[in-house]
Amino acid sequence: SRKGVSADEKRKRIESIFHETGEFYQLKDIEKLGPKRGVVSQSVKEVLMGLVDDGLVTMDKIGTSNYFWSYPSAAVQTKKNKLHDLQEKLTKETERKLKLENQIEEETQGREPSEERDLILSQLKEQEDISKELNKELDKYKENDPVLFETKEKAAQIAREAANRWTENIWEMQSYCVNNFGIERSAFDQQFGIKDDFDTV
Questions:
Q1: Are 184 and 178 in contact (CB under 8 A)?
Q2: pTM above 0.85?
Q3: 162-165 own/partner pairs: CB under 8 Å, 24+ apart
Q4: Cβ within 8 Å of residue 164, ≥6 positions away
Q5: What pLDDT, on the 0 to 100 scale, is given for residue 77?
Q6: Does residue 145 have a pLDDT over 60?
């Protein structure tokens, strides 16, 4: 049987229509041109809106109609910006991980093991594994292979979920220290540089 066109290939083919011509199009125009590139007209709108959502194609309303366009230089810059955001998130997550590691080391010195501590250590191991996966994703981006850019949203989502887990871990450690060692929450926040607007992303 004939193998269908992959979602990534459909995106590249629709995007290439704009890059090769440098023209503005309406949806109906792309639905006519899509089949000539091997993308059936019924799936053109979904593919096109996915490119708009990812910032690779621009949509603007002129009068009563929507027009679409995309230039190669703008698409490359969008990919670079998203890669930069991902790198920043990884940096912040790494900093939080290091702070938690240091705190765990301080709290475990001279103390007997506990279920709470075992839980935190288990969560730390989980986040270390996530960090390794994020670094692998970043290595792929550094190769600057256009095919790999489709995974950028998934990598960003992983980074966001990991950052949120670390936020929850810090809150749990804060409660643990308050309940077991009598540390004031404000003192805890000051010690570890936690700001008032510290929250999940």
A1: yes
A2: no
A3: 162/93, 162/127, 162/130, 162/131, 162/134, 163/89, 163/92, 163/93, 163/96, 163/200, 163/201, 164/200, 164/201, 165/123, 165/126, 165/127, 165/130
A4: 200, 201
A5: 65
A6: no
